[in-house]
Specification:
Layout: H1 17-38, H2 46-55, E1 59-60, H3 61-68, H4 72-84, E2 88-92, E3 100-104, H5 106-109, H6 112-127, H7 132-154
Antiparallel strand pairs: 1-3, 2-3
């Protein structure tokens, strides 16, 4: 049976070896992070929302959307689940009842250290075989690639 996690480049991806490697990396990293989050009864992406609230409790739902870069339906669904789990509250803003303000509950705040520990552990696993210089270069390259993709996505379609 073939190894579905093989890093061997399929012929059809030959024109994009870096993109294929990034895809494989992101899939492995996200899968491991998801397993760690499940141990905390969280779904992937919920920790990103919580981390924003740890730093800035009382953000509006629109501010959270902008900060995490996820689509509206994903954030709404995550916030609803997190509210049902007792991790946060959503209440209309005093200045505009249509604006929802999101605040952590004590249960939500109690996840700050476990989430920080999870990210630290994930980092240790990820950089285990890299030198500090390699980590720095990779991180710089990752930010450059991310910016290039974001900038391209903002351009109007050619036509």
């Amino acid at each position: 049976m073939p190894d579905t996690n093989s890093s061997e480049l399929p012929k059809t991806a030959g024109g994009g070896p870096l993109s294929y490697a990034l895809f494989q990396l992101a899939r492995a990293h996200r899968g491991h992070a998801a397993a760690m989050l499940r141990a905390m009864n969280l779904h992937p992406g919920q920790e990103l929302l919580l981390m924003q609230l740890f730093d800035h409790d009382g953000l509006t739902q629109a501010e959270l959307l902008e900060r995490v870069g996820l689509d509206h339906s994903t954030v709404s669904k995550s916030l609803r689940r997190m509210q049902e789990a007792g991790l946060l509250t959503r209440e209309p803003a005093l200045h505009d009842r249509r604006v929802m303000v999101v605040r952590l509950t004590d249960a939500g705040r109690s996840l700050k250290e476990p989430i920080a520990g999870m990210w630290h552990s994930l980092e240790e696993i990820s950089v285990r075989d890299l030198t500090p210089d390699q980590v720095e270069v990779f991180t710089t390259c990752a930010h450059i690639i991310e910016k290039a993709i974001r900038d391209h996505s903002r351009q109007p379609p050619a036509g």
